[in-house]
UniProtKB/TrEMBL annotation:
CDD domains: ABC_DR_subfamily_A (cd03230). InterPro entries: AAA+_ATPase, ABC_transporter-like_ATP-bd, ABC_transporter_ATP-binding, P-loop_NTPase. This is Copper ABC transporter ATP-binding protein. Residues 2-226 form the ABC transporter domain. GO terms for molecular function: ATP binding; ATP hydrolysis activity. Belongs to the ABC transporter superfamily. It comes from Salegentibacter mishustinae.
Length: 235
């Protein structure tokens, strides 16, 4: 569904993506991993058109995305840091995003899932980090788009909410969606991912299943397999 060819992105002298190639499967959960600063968010933002690469091509469902902003209507995106005005109430924010997107939304189902009903009349600035993240998850998932991009969805969530999120992501996958996800919580990634894509030095260093990653690194444990890549490459 997402096909990236020879993607280059520099910020001034800093080379972040250096000829990156990536083709995701038609559906399934792809985890984009890599050390801090390896370019995961830059890659995600390039797919969304929020970062403009110097070179390369991105296609979604066979269509080039460059200068065709309309494709974004079919992507649900959870940013790593979502900054909404703190004086907005949760319900006001949900209504505002629904108005902006102008699409049918399943917000109530997600409010119930993440037990957000008691927070709807609270201001965003008064919410805990985890509650804010749950609101962001509602905003992201409520439009039922075929491509979902989640930048650190696990951030700030307690174990019960993590389980709810995992089940939600798995249900979306069963509908045939493509889900790109970054997370630093390795057991979450291991449980949920169909493929692991590992970014290093601006390119995809590894692209395969969790089992293939364990085999290629000679490690039985997923976290150790990831650590193995990093230490082998002195990243
Ligand atoms: N707008 C920008 N201007 C300048 N440098 C940037 C910009 N955005 C990102 N960078 C730099 O590009 C590099 C890659 O950043 P990016 O956020 O893509 O990494 P990441 O893999 O998502 O990191 P993390 O795991 O810490 O979230 C970093 O060195 C970052 O400082």
């Amino acid at each position: 569904m997402v096909n990236i060819t020879n993607l280059h992105k520099k910020f001034g002298p800093l080379v972040v993506l250096n000829g990156l190639n990536l083709k995701t499967p038609e559906s399934g959960i792809v985890a984009v991993l890599g050390p801090n600063g390896s370019g995961k968010t830059t890659l995600i933002k390039s797919i969304l058109g929020m970062v403009v690469p110097q070179k390369g091509e991105i296609q979604i469902n066979g269509e080039r995305v460059k200068k065709h902003w309309n494709y974004r209507k079919n992507i649900d995106y959870l940013p790593q840091i979502a900054n909404f005005p703190g004086n907005l109430k949760v319900q006001e924010l949900i209504d505002m995003i629904k108005d902006l997107r102008g699409k049918e939304a399943r917000d109530q189902e997600l409010i119930d899932l993440f037990k957000l009903e008691p927070f709807l009349e609270k201001k965003l600035s008064n919410l805990s980090g985890g509650s804010k993240q749950k609101v962001n998850l509602v905003l992201c998932f409520m439009f039922d788009s075929p491509l979902i991009i989640l930048d650190e969805p696990t951030s700030g969530l307690d174990p019960v909410s993590l389980i709810r999120l995992r089940k939600l992501i798995q249900r979306e996958k069963e509908k045939g969606k493509t889900i790109l996800i970054t997370s630093h919580i390795m057991n979450f990634v291991e449980e949920i991912s169909d493929r692991i894509v590992f970014l290093l030095e601006g390119q995809i260093y590894f692209n395969g299943t969790v089992e293939e990653l364990k085999t290629s690194t000679g490690e039985k444990d997923f976290e150790h397999a990831i650590a193995n890549i990093l230490t082998e490459n002195h990243a």
